[in-house]
Amino acid sequence: MMQESGTETKSNGSALQNGSSSGNHLLECGGLREGRSNGETPAVDVGAADLAHIQQQQQMTPLIQYFTSKQREGMDDRAGSENTKALQVARQLLLQQQQQQQQQQQQQQQQVSGLKSPKRNDKQPALQVPVSVAMMTPQVITPQQMQQILQQQVLSPQQLQVLLQQQQALMLQQQQLQEFYKKQQEQLQLQLLQQQHAGKQPKEQQQVATQQLAFQQQLLQMQQLQQQHLLSLQRQGLLTIQPGQPALPLQPIAQGMIPTELQQLWKEVTSAHSAEETTGNNHSSLDLTTTCVSSSAPSKTSLIINPHASTNGQLSVHTPKRESLSHEEHPHSHPLYGHGVCKWPGCEAVCEDFPSFLKHLNSEHALDDRSTAQCRVQMQVVQQLELQLAKDKERLQAMMTHLHVKSTEPKTAPQPLNLVSSVTLSKSASEASPQSLPHTPTTPTTPITPVTQGPSVITTTSMHTVGPIRRRYSDKYNVPITSDIAQNQEFYKNAEVRPPFTYASLIRQAILESPEKQLTLNEIYNWFTRMFAYFRRNAATWKNAVRHNLSLHKCFVRVENVKGAVWTVDEVEFQKRRPQKISGNPSLIKNMQSSHSYCTPLNAALQASMAENSIPLYTTASMGNPTLGNLASAIREELNGAMEHTNSNESDSSPGRSPMQAVHPVHVKEEPLDPEEAEGPLSLVTTANHSPDFDHDRDYEDEPVNEDME
DNA sequence: CAGGCACTAAACATCA
DNA sequence: ATGATGTTTAGTGCCT
After folding, report:
1. Which residue numbers delimit the DNA-binding region (predicted)?
2. What pLDDT does A182 receive?
3. What is the pLDDT of residues A127-185, one digit of tens each?
4. Could you tell me the pLDDT band of residue A297, with boundaries at 50, 70 and 90?
């Protein structure tokens, strides 16, 4: 019958405040942008398209990268328009660059001359595979993205670990790819030289062009791999992609880790690098990549994760556990040897066994200019990574400390954001105010702690120690409970997060959701356990609470039925409670309005991005911007409902409901009810029709809030 | 600070 | 007797 999975009676201090918030729901949003039902941010989208275009051209020059990186940097604290400007500039530059390059290439095809120093001109590398250095940087997640992760989200150490591992693995892969491409490039040049001497240009050029194409494709694949990695991170709620940069993962921009000096180093290496033989085995290092890419398919639709599978809070999402992870921990002890391949940067030589590898190492990678240069590069890379790691570690430490301190404070439980494919999400979210705002005198520039404690699946278990929360925000906004539950359904089902609603609200919801608008106690229990993972524990406690609430509140009416007693909702009674509550809470309203004023322009696009990336709360949390989307509508509805209530008892605040849709005769509770009860048609069981009131949530307007309703 | 509210815990009653 | 259901009371904490 009932699922009494965890009947520990000890419930004090249980997971009441695992108000984490990363709804990993809403995975229906497929790609980075496709998932959105309608493009909220056209300007940004254009930028994204441009970026993608640029990406496909594989022609990002350092200059463009600079611009785009600038763009990204600005994205954190500026609106997107500036960024699109920068992007346009970059795009123009790119076009010029492309033209120049085309001219160059044409010239070269006509006269393959001056090949001795094809790279002398950094800007137009002759016949160089148009792969920017930055593109090849071993950077899967840019430092800023990492920063985002660390700044905005509460990650468990394990997740950080996994993240880092994935990052490292991908970096390794990328590094190998870099080497591979570098090598290919050099070989091409060498071949070209030879061919020039041999005097057979046209054919070989064609070949070269083909190879170039192949390289580009491979690079593209690499990019896609990156992208998927990032996507998977997003899906886990580990990474936030901001709206102005939906194509962010497509931007293999060197940032932080690879400054220009590093590029130069690479060039040094490249120029110092003499031609090597054989490229045939190089693909060994690519195998993983290509298979990975092909398995997860570049098309974004293929990235869509089965909502059911992914809504599981634990999010077993397709984080393609890249086999490359094993690169590091390959049984063969030498870090430069793995999978039968020499892992010296840029080498990839196949070595049958370890001894032959050692032999190869000593012969091919002896102390010479090239090795030295490569070493320097590697040092730089490592240094940068270490720096970054140290920085992020520090940040993480600070976060942990901060959160630890804060989490012990009796804060209110944050409410998961309704981000699931909400059409007006950006609007509502941007207008929203965090429910915690009234209690948190945080300035917009400082992260709001409770927000970072959102119902993230990551931390739900770790949050269980947090003390009980007495306040249930949404109790005051009981209308949107419908949409909230509907929208966060999967989240609540899978994450052991206490829903931010009072028992009364939940019970009412359960009853209203039933076809008959009536439930037996047991059915109510079942609804609780079915809808909320949280209520699969401590059954004795919450069941008692349910019964207590059913008995206590006049709005719950017991009806003798053929099959026993069922409980119904006296909507009027229920609504009666609301005005008095909301009226006493003007500060909340004010806060909402004020927060609205500053967060709207800033965050509209951001919210959209969050929505499509299944990342509630986090992004704006770091900006101190409230993003509890449905709170605004909640309050609004609350107010509407309250006002309507004062005007007439007939109207429900939710348009989705027909107040007069009484189902069955309700027989009133045994106890005499208030005299007020006599005032209405009233012991009607108001029935909510089952249409989800999403529309309602979205249709509200920005009307002035009436604080004096009573 | 008082009062209201929500939550938790527990005692008790009723009924199948 | 037992468990489910329902009622009531008490204590506590948060918020206005």
Report:
1. 498-571
2. 57
3. 333 333 333 333 344 444 444 433 443 444 444 454 455 555 555 565 665 665 555 55
4. very low
CA–CA distance, A288 with A173 (Å, rounded to integer): 8
Strand B: list positions under 7 Å from protein Cβ.
4-11
Residue A561 CA and nucleotide B5 C1' are separated, in Å, by: 31
As a rounded value in angstroms, the CA-to-C1' distance for A551 and B13 is 14
Q: Strand C: which bases are under 7 Å from protein Cβ?
A: 4-10, 12-16
Residues with CB under 7 A from strand C: A 1-2, 410, 412, 438-439, 467, 470-471, 520-522, 525, 544, 547-548, 550-552, 558, 564-565, 567, 584-585, 587-588, 669-671
How many Å does it take to go from CA A390 to C1' B4?
A: 50
Report the predicted TM-score, pTM, of the whole model to 2 decimal places: 0.33
Q: Which two tokens stand for residue A449?
A: 């702690």
Q: Which residues pair with A6 in a beta bridge?
A: A537
The C1' atom of B16 and the CA atom of A525 lie apart, in whole Å, by 19
Domain boundary among A234, A267, A295: A234
Number of domains in chain A: 2
Is residue A146 a part of any domain in this protein? no
Domain end (from A167, A200, A234): A234
Element (H, E) at A557: strand A556-561
Q: Is residue A93 in a domain?
A: no
List phi, psi (to 5°) of A556. Answer: -100, 125
A214-217 contacts at long range (C-beta below 8 A, 24 or more positions apart): A215/A129, A215/A131, A215/A181, A215/A184, A215/A185, A216/A58, A216/A129, A216/A130, A216/A131
CB A504 within 7 Å, strand B: yes
Domain of residue A170, residue span: 157-185+218-234
Q: Kindly state the helix (H) or strand (E) to which residue A556 belongs, with its residue range.
A: strand A556-561
Determine contact, residues A241/A248, Cβ cutoff 8 Å. yes
The CATH number that applies at residue A503 is 1.10.10.10
Residue A556: which nucleotide is closest by CA–C1'? C6
Q: Is nucleic acid strand B under 7 Å from A470's C-beta?
A: yes
Q: pLDDT (tens digit, 9 = 90+) per residue, A45-63?
A: 333 333 334 343 333 333 3
CB-strand contact A522/B, under 7 Å: no
Task: Name which residue leads in pLDDT, A464 or A565.
Answer: A565
Strand B contact at CB of residue A574, distance < 7 A: no
Tell me the per-residue pLDDT of A590-642, one tens digit each, with 9 for 90 and over.
Answer: 333 333 333 333 333 333 333 333 333 333 333 333 333 333 343 344 334 33
Mean pLDDT of A1-29: 32
| A537 CA from C4 C1′ (Å) | 18
**Whole-angstrom distance, CA of residue A627 vs CA of residue A614:** 13
Comparing every residue's Cα with the C1' atom of nucleotide C4, the nearest one is A522
